[in-house]
Amino acid sequence: MTRNTDDHTPDDRPAGPPRRRSRNRPTGSPRPTGLRLSQTLANPRFVACDDVLATGCYDDPRRCGPGDVFVARMDQERDGHAFVSEAVARGCSGVVAERMVPTFGAPLCVVADATAAYTQIVHRLAGDPAQALDLIAITGTSGKTTTAWLTAAVLAEAGHSVGILSDLGCLDAGSIEAEPPADLADPHEMVHWLKRLIASGCSHAIIEVSSRMLAHQALVGISCGTVAFTNLASAHLDLHGSKQAYHAIKQRILASLPADGCLVGNADDPAVSAAAARHPGRTLLAGLRTPADLTASPVERSLAGQTFLLRTGREMMPVAVSTPVASYARNALTAASIGIAHGVPLATIARGLEAVGGVAGRLERLDRGQDFACFLDQPSSGHQLASTLASLRHLTGHGRLVAAVDTNVADALEGGGRRSRFSSRLLRWCDDCILIPQQLSRKATDDSTRFLAGFDRALSQLGRGDCLVVVGHHDWGSDPVDPSGERMSAQMLTEGWFRVACPPEWTTDWRRAA
Predict the structure, then answer these.
(1) Global pTM?
(2) Gyration radius of the chain over CA positions
(3) What pLDDT does residue 11 have?
(4) What is Dmax (Cα atoms) for the chain?
């Protein structure tokens, strides 16, 4: 998401929760004596000094103090060069910028890319925590989150201690439930989570890498032993401008792959195959339709789930999962390829994939005793949603396929003010598309009563062989059935309907204990 950048200054930016500066320094260690930028950055040019010594680094002048370096980054939100004077007034020890700028006597370091320099300085000040982990970076237009969690299951089945940083949440080795997603484009957040994974005992870290992270140079100077591409289509053109620019940003991730690293790719995607062909190092390609190092053949697929055969060389292993769409099988295939790159046997890979059952929020099955199939999906792109609906349309056949969509999700995927276009696109695959209005309240009003009556009528018509897809976003910390607020989301509305239409059946067969 992007914010309105008109007349944007640090003082009117959403401040968010305050961060303690001490969290970005090693716990229990003395304050570092300083980092010389001449030994950290490539081709720096120093003005009015021979070097700059830093004990802290920030791109927000309000967080700067004595010993800190202020980095004048430029992005869609602001030009950091406009706030150099404020950082200097707060006592910063130096300024890193992309052009000559008045620093009022403070040392100046001019670099070609201040955003990349910011990432490098923050990680170096933290002691380069990424070096203590076997990093696996997963990117693509869609399927990143599912692939990340399936990969974690495969590696965990092989006995590794795995941490995950993804759009679905962040999880270390000592936690049972994932915490809300972190802004990993911020190097301080990335450093914080990498340190947390190390402290919890993780040996491997799986990072879901978005195009926004790559645009913010979040992986500069970080070595990832494995890089995986799920696919390369077209997305986030509002951020990158064109499909070609989007693809170029995505391929920045290859700079993080060392000479002895492994590139894992989707052989069915022409853009990914072309990138793999240009890669001089080790590659592993996986395909459902194209001959590759690892392939999968469908055995059975229905709304109840699917079974496919993993094949690599002379080995073959069946895998049964509850998520029925082809994209899930392709993501499982990519996760299996990452497992092979790390020496995991095929039988262990199959057990890991089956142990997952499904990925929360990624076509998650909702079984409440209803006759029809129901799935909860939280797509991150229109490409992902289209792939899901196309597969479900094929599996539903002559049955009805209905989508219940939160309007805020429709706005995010299609663009505000274009909900009719979004609905018409979904009707290419769906028999009906129900948009859940943002103003829908639990309070009884004429509008809400009419909408709820129509919602009940639409779901009551579904039966065996039909399918309902609930499209929304996860609300962290809220109960989907008893929300703390007044507004009802698509998931809350559906869960409430299930409670009324499909109440649990209690047995009355009481027997005397022997």
Answers:
(1) 0.85
(2) 25
(3) 45
(4) 92
